[in-house]
Amino acid sequence: MRRRRLKPALKAKEPERRCVATGAALTPETGLRFALSPDGELAPDFSARLPGRGAWLTPDRALLDAALKKGAFARSFKAGVTAPADLAERVEAGLAKQALSALGLARRAGDVATGFEKVRAMLADGTAAVLVNAADGGEDGRRKLARVAGDAAVVELFSEAELAAALGRDGPTVHVGVKAGPAAQRFLKEARRLTGFRRGEKAAQN
Q: Transmembrane ranges (predicted)?
């Protein structure tokens, strides 16, 4: 009796995601999904889970403005689209919330160190994947930690108060280390999307 050779199961093909403004290929990690409400209002879908057709954009304030002006979202959805006047502000606030929430999850997973000495120790022993410095923190501490940061990614997007709130701390939080692992990767994903959006905002203002 001949044995049948089993063929490996084919992987489901990933849906193609392209930026409505540039046509660049995107992934859920690098792109930002938008969805339409039942009445046709455009809204960011930060977790890419809302039902229905979606449109993808490179996280960039200038590209969002350009896509709205050129009707790129309407073409993608093949429907009339309205955008709230403060859409860009909603996107930026939502991206910041996503990143801070990811940092809070890293703390609950036990992957976070706070305070200069603890963060320096984490960086020195090579277990830190991310160094977070408060944007309004002192320059001296940043310089000292930079000397031992090695390959750790450096994020300086949030104030001392924002970091404290995300980590459930009472006092200002200036330096945070995040241990290498899934929690650090999720935080970095969100931080990079926010960085890209804010970079585009500065470009639009110049």
A: none
Distance of CA 70 to the CA centre of its chain: 25
Using CB atoms within 10 A of its CB, is residue 18 exposed (0-12), middle (13-18) or buried (19+)? middle
**pLDDT tens across 109-133, in order?**
999 999 999 999 999 999 999 999 9
CA distances from 69 to 79, 156, 189 (A): 15, 31, 28
CA distances to 14, 17, 40, 189, 200 from 25, in Å: 12, 6, 25, 17, 18
Residue 41 structural domain: 32-84
Q: Look at residues 160, 154, 166, 161 and name the one whose alpha carbon lies nearest to residue 103.
A: 166
Q: Amino acid identity of 33?
A: R
What confidence tens digit (pLDDT) does each residue in 69-105 have? Answer: 999 999 999 999 999 999 999 999 999 999 999 999 9
